[in-house]
Amino acid sequence: MASNPRSANGHRRRQVRARVLAEETHCALCGNPVDKTLSMQSGQHGPRCTIPNCPGCTPHPMRAEVDEIIPVSRGGSPYERSNTQLTHRICNQRKSDGRKPKASDVTGMPVSTGW
Three-class SS string for 15-75? Predict the structure, then answer.
């Protein structure tokens, strides 16, 4: 049984992730700035949360994620800097769903390009 390549070399993956977070500021998919301080949504809980007084355990949809441009499942490397990019969590999820993220997905409002 093959192991997950993302966790096979955790140290190297963490180094690439740290480099992406240090070098990039905007989501590669929608083009908007990424707030790297976001983590969990306060007061939001996953369906299996049983922790009393949990401050929140649901990931914030706008938090920073490091995306593989070519997915690992299609032969992409999780360790090569050239195959990684900064994204919002929600944009990365939409990419995985096969939907192209738009600026309005992030802001919640339609964006006009015609001035």
Answer: HHHHHHHHHCCECCCCCCECCCCCCEECCCCCCCCCCCCCCCCEECCCCEEEEECCCHHHC
Provide the b/e sequence for 54-73 (b: ≥16 CB within 10 Å): eeeeebbebbbbbbbeeeee
Cα separation of 58 and 44, whole Å? 6
For 14-51, the pLDDT digits (tens) are 999 999 999 999 999 999 999 999 998 888 888 888 88
Query: What percent of the chain lies above the pLDDT cut of 90?
Result: 46
pLDDT at 115: 40
Is a pLDDT exceeding 50 seen at residue 1? no
* 85 sits in which H/E element: strand 84-88
* Closest by Cα among 66, 90, 56 to 14: 66
Length of the chain: 115
Domain-wise residue ranges, the chain: 9-102
Q: Which of 88, 70, 91 is nearest to 79 (CA)?
A: 70
